[in-house]
Amino acid sequence: MTKKVRVRFAPSPTGPLHIGGVRTALFNYLFAKKHQGTFILRIEDTDQNRYVEGAEQYIIDALNWCGIPFDEGINKNEKFGPYRQSERKHLYKQYADELIASGNAYYAFDTAEDLDFHRTDHEAKGKTFIYNWHNRLKLSNSLSLSAEEVQAKLDAGDEYVIRFKSPQDETLHLKDIIRGDIKIDTNILDDKVLFKSDGMPTYHLANIVDDHLMEITHVIRGEEWLPSLALHYQLYKAFGWEAPEFAHLPLILKPTGKGKLSKRDGDKLGFPVFPLQWSDPVTYEVSRGYKEDGYFPEAMINFLAFLGWNPGTEQEIFSLKELIAAFELERVNKSGARFDPDKIKWFNHHYMQEQSNDALAELFKPIVDENVTLSAVEGSHDIDVNYISIVIGMIKERATFISDFWELSAYFFEAPKSFDEKATKKALKENTADIMASIKAIINGIENFSTETLQTEIKGWITANNIGFGQVMMPLRIALVGALQGPDVFDIMYMIGKAETVKRIEALVSTI
Known about the structure:
By secondary structure, this protein is mainly α.
């Protein structure tokens, strides 16, 4: 590529950033970094009626948490600022006027009532009303009115919009990096509004002007903008500007594979569709976020990269650095990508195992602090983070989230509150109380209380007395854990200490 790559992510601050928006930002980021380019954040807030307080900061926070921060944007390397469209509105009118002067756009004075009448009239005749070449000369605009009439309306302050003049009987040949060559018959295009009666540009005009002024080389955006591609190409041509290259990403589909993924799907099936938790400033409704639900950003990024992109290999686990090296827009699929909530959990489990036990302990400690009781085990009343770290090393293989740790490890911090009925029925026999009394005596007699000593003494006693290992180890595990689960029994005894081990054995025997 001869030009330095410049891409932009341009969300509207109308609420929290949807997972689909994060995927769009990610693909822009990967493409920019792959080509040593610049990733820009631009806030498209021309629709002030839909502006939501806090949404802009949420977008920035979400990108930062995901590990894909923008290189250029609000308060950061502002070479082409401002980066909020609402602060650029003084720019757009001159470009709209330029299109009128070149004959590529025109003033339209039609009132809302006029347009409603035409729509209703067309519907009654089984037709669809489209404002374009076939009827624009019959409507109230600067193409059908004389120059004097147009000037009179402007001087009188009549409300107007500025529409693009779509060509008639032409075939547009468009290119998309993902979708290839596209042909469009201009006769089916409507004359889109470029400038509204409230003095603000529409998305189409502002988008093109900003992309040109910010020297954007590639526009990577969602499939929902594909119908706008013809107009955007024509606008570049009308201005005499070189158009960027376009790539339209496939939709993210519901887990069923049918229809676009929505917040409702997440609410219904129990998974978030936003990267961070969002509290609506108007309704106060709180929506779940991947961060707060215990997902690692690396898992989310790895998962999102595979929604529509395929590296062409069997590899599924990619670091961000590896994604940058492997990413190519040409390997993005045209068809929609099904969102699989179980797959992102699979990624999260993987990245959980890669975290250090010490780092996980710091995250788990508040949960322990909240749950632990006065019956906490010997030596852990202060809930030492190093103790927690060792515990995590024993149980994290079975965990997907930090929130799973307590259920998997509660017995390391407090005695079982009950014993699993099915397990006790299986493990406790007539001679269990006598066996446990012998085991308790062995434990009390050990001076060097360690995993190795416990294992040697207890296994030696079992062998010497020709007793089945299950007759000893199963009730012992139930005494310590409350169920037939958990890591090595001797590790558990060592961790909770001699006094707590004896106490738990006595608690089980008292129930026999």
